[in-house]
Amino acid sequence: MSSHRSSWPRRLALWTVALALLAAVLVWQDYSFAEAGAALSTVGPLGIVAVCAFHLVPLVLDAVAWRVLMPSDSMLSLGRASLARWIGEGVGALIPSAQVGGELARLRAGAILGLPGAVAGATVLVDVTLGIVTQIVYSIAGIAALFLLSSESSGLVMQITLGLVVFAVLIAGFVVAQLGSPMRRLAELLGPIVGEHAQDRLLHNARTADAVLNSIYSRHRSLSVSATWRLAAWLAGAGEFWLGMYLLGHPIGILEAVMLESLVQAARNAAFLVPAGLGVQEATLIGLGAAIGIPAEAAIGLSLLKRIRELALGVPSLVAWSILERRATAPS
User: Fold this and answer.
1) pTM (2 decimals)?
2) Vertex 303 angle, CA 302 and 306, to 5°
3) What is the pLDDT of residues 111-169, one digit of tens each?
């Protein structure tokens, strides 16, 4: 309980910084509530529903990618995998615990829905790894698209490329850290903290998780198929950008949509400590939009539309998670 309470000052500080960053971006662009209202009236309620409905496409594709990694004898149905994925995404977007909290929520939801704990932990870890690796590939496509779309973007392309190289090196280290017995090593570090009584059980569970993790990484075909579905989900996400700009009255091509979506997602993940990427998403959209002729007010309108979608799908996902937890802890 004390650790939970002690984390709130840090969370509050993160949210304060994020909101201040968002406010600074809006003040910088002199963006008003009237402009926000005009953007939403242009889209209309049906447009917002359409954006929310379309987002289910990449969400389900991500669930398919995760499901491919699961052993055949303990595989969740597509509906249950999508539900766990939805809950994880909602937690990651709305709860101030950075994106790691969303993956832990997905792990927990998957376990409640019938995935063995060790399998849930190992598959989520590999899925996150594949997600980051495929995002790097997708971001490279976004950089190439930016280079093709704007003759004056060479400086911006160089900066983004440099950041991507640093990111890729860090991810390579993350992948290497998963080789061998990472769960056992972690359990040995945590052993003195949890105490003697829990240490043996922790080590046993860690060895089980390592065995599942090594088994997943030995299935090269499954890894390739999962990565392919992940790339399909990234590309489907660009459709949401295309649809949003169309509804805002600033239609763009699919190349522009891929460029915007890939590099905005890369910026949000790079700034993972900023809750919901507040300010980061808006500033990135303004900068990238300017490079291809999108007005700042349209870029902010698109970000606003995505924020509304995150709330519209995220709040019900938190309710669903609460219901799952109550059912899991209810006396039988």
Assistant:
1) 0.84
2) 90
3) 999 999 889 988 998 999 999 899 999 998 998 898 888 766 666 677 777 777 777 77
Residues 57, 283 contacting (CB under 8 angstroms): no
Structure tokens at 214: 């090594």
Residue owning tokens 């999108």: 294
Distance CA 254, CA 251 (A): 10
CA distance between the termini of the chain: 26
> CA distances (Å), 249 to each of 24, 230, 232, 242, in order?
26, 30, 26, 11
CB 180 within 8 A of CB 192: no
Q: Is 249 helix (H, G, I), strand (E, B) or coil?
A: coil
Domain boundaries, given as residue ranges, for the chain: 39-180+220-325
Distance of CA 253 to the CA centre of its chain: 24
**AA identity, residue 96:** P
Q: Which amino acid is it at 129?
A: T
Neighbours of 244 (CB within 10 A): 27
